[in-house]
Specification:
Layout lengths: L11 H10 L6 H19 L33 H5 L20
Helix pairs in contact: 1-2
Length: about 100
């Protein structure tokens, strides 16, 4: 098994550049720590290259994804009186709402 921290692809300069782009002010000690941590992370990701995946079917999701929505079936409408029953204001046929734009 490869040493996860032995991934030299990330340099201190790379981390400094990303920090600058992200507008992060890093101390030299933080820059060294983050460089080592990112190298280790990429080293662990690189270990996935060693996993035998020849017999594994390609998939878009790790689990089976199905449409869980119900079929769109028309149902009877809510009666107007029931819809307006709890309205703060109505004229018997429509909801009444305060005017929010300048009017005439």
């Amino acid at each position: 098994m490869a040493d996860p921290a032995a991934n030299p692809q990330i340099t201190r300069r790379d981390v400094a550049r990303v920090a600058k782009l992200s507008r992060l002010a890093l101390k030299p000690s933080e820059l060294n720590a983050f460089t080592n941590q990112l190298r280790a992370i990429l080293g662990y990701v690189h270990l996935l290259d060693e996993v035998p995946t020849g017999d594994v079917e390609p998939m878009a999701h790790a689990i089976d994804v199905r449409d869980v929505l119900r079929e769109d079936v028309p149902t009877p409408m809510l009666p107007r009186e029931a819809a307006l029953a709890n309205a703060p204001a109505s004229d018997g046929e429509c909801f009444l709402v305060p005017q929010i734009l300048g009017g005439e």
